[in-house]
Amino acid sequence: MPHPLLSDPWVAAKIDQVVAKYGKRWTPRQIEAFREQAAWTLATNPDVARVLEVAHPGVVDKSGERVVGGAVESPEADTGDERKAGNK
Q1: Along the chain (88 residues), what's the average pLDDT of each consecutive run of 10 residues?
Q2: What ranges do the domains of the chain cover?
Q3: Strands 71-73 and 66-68
């Protein structure tokens, strides 16, 4: 049974970035062990848990949008329309 933190898409993506960078020579079993150990460390080490709490976005949505300061920020939101609106 995987660690509950691995069901968080944001946390899983961050761990997978490390695996992609450093785990090229690891076996699938070693990769799973690393992912489990990383999730366990993120959950149980008080210093690391505080860093995770600060870095983790408040809401993780599969659409790519995230809540920033109470407003939704979307990857498609930056279309340059803001610049055009300021020139009117």
Answers
A1: 85 91 92 93 88 77 55 52 46
A2: 1-56, 64-88
A3: antiparallel
